[in-house]
Amino acid sequence: MDHAIYQEVLELASQISDRYLRAVTYARIGYYLHKLGDETYRDAFKNSLDAVSRIESPISVVRALIEIGGYLHKAGLVKASTRVFYQAYEIAGSFPQPLHDEMIEILVNRLIELGLLNDALFYGRNIRGDVKRNDVLLKILKEYLKEQNMKRAYITLKYIQGEPWHSIGAIETLKVHLEREEFGSAIKILRSLKGEYWLSEAMREVAAHLKNADVPKETYEKFVDIALSMPKSVSPEVLRSLLVGLGSYGETSFVVRIIRGLPEEERIKVLTGLISNIIDQEELLDSLVKSLDESDFDSVARIILDELLSRAASPKYKQLVEHVGFGAGDDSIRAKAVTYLAKIGEYRSAMRLAGEIKDLHVRSLAFGSIAVSMLREGDIDRAIDAALEVKDPKWGSWLLSEILTKILELQAGEIVRDDLEDKSHKQKKIWEKG
């Protein structure tokens, strides 16, 4: 295109009868002429503003000025665009509610699109209605946070008054601090939150982030302290997540010390989550067990054994299983340890531990699990010997019956199933009914 064509485009624009559309069209032409390097862009913008002066509707004037200001800014005419935007703002200032706020919101949205966040904040904080003002300011805050302009973000957050907007803004700011690993700032925000719901939401963000972050132990402990000081109505899963995360970092003794003050149900949930997280780290499991006092030992031993028995058995857990098995005060826990030791072929240790079980029913299950493991290895004689270790007439007879049946199953090429526990419960019910 040459200069003559540009002139023709300008002349054709003058024939647009709608004054609003004429003004906006001139502004668009001005932007593209500037982009093409033709000096007639100045005429286009001048014609655009002249067309605005002929618009009769004040609302249309404001809308047109906002559009023109946008094109002026895109063309690099920053001072001119600033003047036009302010003119739109001044005219809107005389509008009644809710029209005033609607026009300012349109202006602010355009400024956000152009990346003029400081100008958007200047106009946005002058919106009169609380709901719309806070909605707009929250939008500006999120844009500052995208740019990681924390100074301006905090200025914006101060202007956001009322709930839930202030708390939403605080949590959005918190997320950025966590991403930047600015934990001191994150802690300040946490301590500024008042509502229990928002405090709980913020702590969830913290817990989720710390799972994947390389956080110093001291920082983790500070967040745990905040969680402990939270109202009891705040979801306990927050503290649970933090403690599990901290324990997974190796601070098992710290976690055990903290959970001693928790209700038993919550204590078990923390320990279950922690053990599930560190089950593949024998050293951490061993450290956890060693840090327990007598009151927690059995519950932790049970959780560890249940977790291990749900997986493929491995000899690497031999010492741990022996430790929790021989240290447990509950026969059912000893039986679980016997089962695991038998699965990994540690029969001497398994037989010794099974021999310490006093409950006749549980004792039969323990020796039964040893016998089943021996049968699976094809060692029939030792399996029978294990079954004969149960001297109780009733349970001894029952176990021998089951093992003899399994020997025949083995000879018939069938799979030797580990179903003695279910069968024992059925037999116990039969005896109870007499």
Q: Beta-strand level of the residues, as a percent range?
A: under 5%
The largest pleated sheet is described as: none
Q: Please write the string of helix (H) and strand (E) elements.
A: HHHHHHHHHHHHHHHHHHHHHHHHH
Bulk shape: elongated
Helix content: over 70%
Helix-strand category? mainly alpha
Number of strands: 0
- Give the number of helices: 25
Average pLDDT rating = 89
Radius of gyration over all CA atoms, rounded: 37 Å
Low-confidence stretches: none
| Gap between N and C termini | 105 Å
Explain what this protein looks like in three dimensions:
- By secondary structure, the protein is mainly alpha-helical.
- Among the domains are: 199-291; 292-434.
- The chain is built from 25 helices and no strands.
- Helix 6 (99-113) packs parallel to helix 8 (130-146), helix 7 (117-124) packs antiparallel against helix 8 (130-146) and helix 9 (150-159) runs antiparallel to helix 10.
- 39% of the residues are buried.
- The model has no long low-confidence stretch (mean pLDDT 89).
Secondary structure elements and pairings:
Layout: H1 3-13, H2 19-36, H3 41-52, H4 58-74, H5 78-92, H6 99-113, H7 117-124, H8 130-146, H9 150-159, H10 165-179, H11 183-192, H12 196-210, H13 217-229, H14 237-248, H15 252-259, H16 264-278, H17 282-290, H18 294-309, H19 318-327, H20 331-343, H21 347-354, H22 360-376, H23 380-387, H24 393-411, H25 420-433
Helix pairs in contact: 1-2, 2-3, 2-4, 3-4, 4-5, 4-6, 5-6, 6-7, 6-8, 7-8, 8-9, 8-10, 9-10, 10-11, 10-12, 11-13, 12-14, 13-14, 14-15, 14-16, 16-18, 18-19, 18-20, 19-20, 20-21, 20-22, 21-22, 22-23, 22-24, 23-24
